[in-house]
Amino acid sequence: MQNFWTASGFDTLTKNDHGWLRVTPDYLRFILARPELAPIQESGPQERVLHAALDADPLRKISPEELIAIEDADARGNYVYFLKLRKALLDAVTLERFYLQSFRKGSIDLPPVFLELAAHAITRGLLDGIDDPYEVRVGEMFFRPQRVSIEGGQILAADAATIQMFAETGGFGSVGRLIAQQGTALASVNMDVMSHENAQLYWLRENRYSYLLDLTHERAGEQALARLLGRWVKHFLGVDVSIEALPKIDDEVWRWHVGLDAESTLILNDLYENNDVDEARLKRLISLFRLRFTDDSDMRSDLVGKPVYLGLAITEDNVLKIKPQNLLINLPLKNNG
């Protein structure tokens, strides 16, 4: 099997008997090497000393005096967050438990980048042994925003940061940025749509986030998303579900729904409450799914036999930011009352 997403930190983690990812000192070193914490040319000597000490022993206790000694205020704040993150990770033992606890407690007191890092590694672990490039490309959406275009009924998702990078540099990094600053036109973005002909080439491009994903109804991208959402639920909650894509919700006794992002949550809420939703806003609802529990005993008793509808929507500026945690905290599980 391909060892993909080498930038996820997955290789620094180990699995427990449940398949969840145990936090290790090497994973903490991986976080310390991130741009948010790694020293830069302007870093002061005290910051460098602290970083080296933590890299040597990621579990080392840090005194308030060592934090105060960091020369740059922003860097000092980043280390405060790192220590808070380290405690939360070590207390949780696994990334999955850390991820669940972070959202279930109601308020997030860590920068989003740390939760996205966890989602990156968790999704990588979830896809371990999967050889379907479509599911792996879909997995990118669980921790990276997408920019979506809709033309002629076709829905294409591109990695938002990749699009921005091309816009600024033409894909040529700092050299391209310099050329752009000089007023020279850059080449337009050239990204391939993942297809059965080129999908296997994904393994040569992983970590580049360079494939367009076709999320048009009944096509491979949308079907792969349905499969991965089902895996996500099973991995975290231990319940079997089936998820199928729908063209629309046609249910007079619609009882429960979960938005997979902030926009779809608001749109589905309005549809459920029979509030007016104008055509332009409705078109931003790009995918709908129906989730059913394989075992009704896993559901709330008052909802047994009823499907759960899922939605996916883009913002007014065509950005899609999936919140996979919504599936974990908003499903009508029996144990949630």
Description:
With 337 residues, the chain is an alpha+beta fold. The chain folds into three domains: 6-126, no CATH class; 133-214, no CATH class; 220-336, no CATH class. It is 42% helix and 15% strand. It is built from 14 helices and eleven strands. It has helices at residues 25-32, 45-56, 64-68, 73-92, 95-104, 112-126, 133-140, 160-169, 173-181, 202-205, 220-237, 262-272, 279-283, 325-329, and strands spanning 14-15, 21-22, 146-151, 154-159, 192-193, 211-214, 241-246, 256-259, 285-293, 308-313, 319-320. The strands form three sheets. Strands 5-6-4-3-11 form a five-stranded mixed β-sheet. It starts with 13 loop residues before the first strand and ends in an 8-residue tail after the last helix. The model is unreliable at 172-187 (pLDDT under 50).
Intertermini distance: 41 Å
* Secondary-structure element series: EEHHHHHHHEEHHEHEHEEHHEEEH
Low-confidence stretches: 172-187
Q: So what's the oligomer here?
A: single chain
- Report the sheet with the most strands, covering strand number, pairing sense and barrel closure: 5 strands, mixed
Number of domains: 3
Q: Quickly count the helices.
A: 14
DSSP strand (E) fraction? 5-15%
How much helicity do the residues have?
Answer: 40-55%
Order of strands, widest sheet: 5-6-4-3-11
Which term fits the overall shape?
globular
Structural class, from secondary structure content? alpha+beta
Which key terms come to mind for this protein?
337 residues, 14 helices, alpha+beta
Compact summary:
This protein is of the alpha+beta class and 337 residues long. It is built from 14 helices and eleven strands.
